[in-house]
Amino acid sequence: MTESAGASGAVSLDPDRDHTFDQLAALAELVAQRGLETLVEPVPGLTIGDLPTALAAVKHVARQDFRLLIDTMHLVRSGSGPTDLAALDPHLIGYAQISDTTLAPRTDNYAEEAMYERMIPGQGELPLSGILAELPSDIVIGLEIPQRSLALDGVQPAERLRPSIEATRALLAAVSL
Prior knowledge:
This protein has helices at 17-32, 51-61, 72-77, 82-86, 110-116, 128-134, 148-152, 157-176, and strands spanning 6-10, 36-40, 66-71, 93-98, 140-143. The chain is α/β, with parallel strands linked by helices. The chain is globular and about 45 Å long.
């Protein structure tokens, strides 16, 4: 693991893959100058939309401080899963974001679902236990579980977050056994 004070996440909206890779290399250099590492997040529908493309970016950038951000929703919806993570050098994974969802999109707008309506871990169909079992044990795991509909219904932040924290703790405990 690189010695750094933190990390900077990156996605690209530039449709040119080669240009995206070059720009990520330039970004990684600037971020490293500030003692941080860069994490690239594959997101379906974007230039780096899946794990193989993200790995190609990592190879292109060729820096120890340029690694993957694994988001469980994006990982599975782009066609990868626990087996794909198991095949990776664990150092390539720098951070993970946990949420749950169905295997098939719940709306016609992927970005809308990803940004505003994810499910509590264990309430959807993602192979979360398998994914968690394959993640390196020394990385930070965060929750990305936006639930705008509950917020609009007046459910307070602590009330929205508590079930997700409890469910994630239970999943992590089960994987650690």
